[in-house]
Amino acid sequence: MLKVLKSGSAETTRFRADGAAFLALALLCGFLGGGLGALALGKQMSPAVSHGLLLDLFVLVPAFIGGMGRLVLPRELAATPGALVALDRLAFALLAGGALCAAGGIAAPGLFAMSLLFWTFGICALATSTVVDCLECRKGRFRDLSPFAWSQLLASLGIIVIAPVMLAGVAHDLMGGMTGTSAVQSWLVRVQTPLLALVITLALGAIATLIPGHSLSSRLIVPSAMAIPSVLVPVIWAHGTIVPGTSDILLRALGVALPSIALIGLVCLGLWRRNIDLDIGFSWSFPALLLLAAGWALSLFPDRPELFHSAMLFGAIFALFGCYYSWQEDALHAPAPAWLARIHLVSMGVAVFAMMPMFPVLSLLGNAGMIVSMFCVGLLIVRFLSAASSPARAGLR
Description:
Layout: E1 4-6, H1 9-40, H2 45-57, H3 60-72, E2 79-81, H4 82-104, H5 111-137, H6 147-175, H7 180-190, H8 192-210, H9 221-242, H10 248-272, H11 280-294, H12 305-331, H13 338-351, H14 360-388, H15 391-394
Helix pairs in contact: 1-2, 1-3, 1-4, 2-4, 2-5, 2-7, 3-5, 3-8, 3-12, 4-5, 5-6, 5-7, 6-7, 6-8, 6-9, 8-9, 8-10, 8-11, 8-12, 9-10, 10-11, 11-12, 13-14
Organism: Swaminathania salitolerans
Keywords: Membrane, Transmembrane, Transmembrane helix
InterPro entries: Cyt_c_oxase-like_su1_sf
């Protein structure tokens, strides 16, 4: 048995610090990966691989599980195993090392394979910690877990399936004579759909928690909808890497379209019954659901595959910010100013146009929205540091 520490103020403080560290790492990787995307437009191989590694592996999944998971989950736990804190910090060190290798691969392409190795061990350590946390520290029955906790548990199980298969595939290609850069690039493309399904699971869990209502309180429908993209899709994908023939369209329908449409249907039912409060959580969650539910249709346009990927990622980012705003208000008792939340929400909505390069004017407007959104994120960081450093407001002592 793990040594159990009571979920008191000191342990909660550690989990908040760990969550903030994972969010900071994800933010830095996002900025760095976005900058490298400009170099990737020149069709250079190394910047493109570095861009893909940073954005696909080191941003959303660590931000949801390592960041918001470590901030939100302690509020649902009766006790915290002390050994998991060390495991989380090991995971952070491995992921940080992997991110450095991904960036350094531009100068030394051999580091790309090392980056994937670090990421695999780091993300599996983080996932294992989350699974143990949810199983050993839950207060009651499984059906009493919130949709957010379910999404963390199910997505972590999916990670434990996907990451080792991806690493084994790259190792197999390397032994077959393929270069490290080509092998990593090939598997980044192949792993996009199951990784996206995990991001969808995490986003749906956050959304279902942000917009609670009678229809969303079902302890069967929401976990079942999230189990499809988080467990079924990774298993089918892993089988398809050994026995070719699995259709990406089928995986996207199961992992993205079906659960997203099911949840947006529940939201509409809740609105019809007037069970959902139109608060800041709903303001961020509804555009997230729209992008997640309708964005998959963009995959039907094979000449612009990046549109589907961008729509899904934007939807997940909306859910991530909504989860953070809600946590800051409930846990720190320091809600963001209404004007900041509105400007941030509008700027993110405008930033969606950045994924439309076929319309230069809209794309330019979207880039301007992204810049404004980054300033809003900077203000959120300052506010978080101010609130967290105040014992009376953060309740850390």
